[in-house]
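Reminder to self: keep the SMILES exactly as supplied, no canonicalising. Ligand is zinc ion.
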Amino acid sequence: MNDATSAVVPATMRDSMGGAFAAWTAPRGRAIPVAARAWQVCAHVANAGVIDTDEGIVLVDCGLPKDGEELLSLVRSVTSAPLHTLIYTHGHIDHAFGLGPFLAEGGRPPRIIAHRNVVERFRRYSRTAAYNAAANTRQSGGPGPGRPATWWPSRVDEFFWPDTTYEDSLTISVGGEQIILRHAMGETDDATWVWVPGRKLACVGDLWIDGFPNAGNPQKVQRYPEEWARNIRAIAAHEPHAVLAGHGMPLLGVEYIRERLTTMAAYLEYITEYTIGALNAGLDHNAIVTGFRAPSRFANLPYLRPIHDRPEFVVRNVIRRYGGWWNGRPADLLPPTTAEHARELVALAGGAGAFVVRARELAGSNLPLACQLAEWAVLGEPDSVEAHRCLIDVFTARLADETAYQARGIYRTAINASRGRLAELGAAEG
Ligand SMILES: [Zn+2]
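Structure tokens returned for the bound complex:
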């Protein structure tokens, strides 16, 4: 942590199911000065960059739809200059959808600049809106009382489309300030990092999120850890004095920044080399993933904590990229239905009860195996009260040890689904 972060570190928090998890050191509601006439403004989830010039503001990202009001008031707490240009670091929902309140101020609409793949992303978002809504609902723990399904844009007028796009790099001048945009594959294929040489300032979006990089998300499209490592090293080579983060605190100080960026790059390179080496050694997907061990020189660093994604998911992502989707088990190439498979296994064991007993035995020593058995029990006997109770218990135990938002959401969704099924069956949770 740098000095700027120490006052706002929330450390470990507890969620509604009692599990401990590490949270982003998100300094919500603050405008943090990072250079002359430049700030990182921090909304509920994501940050935005404010670069004030003699011609108006260059804004880097604009948050979630619900972040717009908060971002605008933070911007207005530091400058009254008109919004001149908006740059998207990428087209994710938490970075490119909060422009509405800025437009409502009136005046000339800003120019919107992005990498050309942002346009392709928006088209994809529209095409797969229902899937993305479902995936993001799962990621946040699933729908339930007081938890509506996640909104996802689908109509053309729900996007703030860029009016200027570029391929590799683009240099603009606003109020005499030179601003350089560079394409940087990494978390996404549409990412831009923004370099302001006159202020030694880099706005990198989600290329830096003050946690383990989001390079493996189990429900999302391909990520690019190798390119990410190269690009983050290129940013470090510019020797920025300040790096504005997509999430969490800004990084301040040349040496501090260099150490963090190059260490993160080294971790991504390590994971990629491990996975390609394991593919070349002929290991199957399960052996590659379960055989991965995070080296302590990376895993113990506070700025590489797996609070959103996990290294094992990046391993999966690299396997998908280079090794296809087949997991190495011939029976899984053209498999039976899951329901058929589960019913047969449970029947062979004499009923779901046998799975439940063994899952509970294993819960203290091997939670991954206990969760597998509880899941087969539920799939094999979907009306078994004891199977649902067992699933809730073992996944709740798993949740207590899990820090990554993406994994926690999927576990919570499973727990909520079993709770819902118990309610339908008229049974208490037990
Ligand atoms: Zn983000």
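Points to follow up:
The chain is about 40% helix and 15% strand.
The first strand starts at residue 12 and ends at 14.
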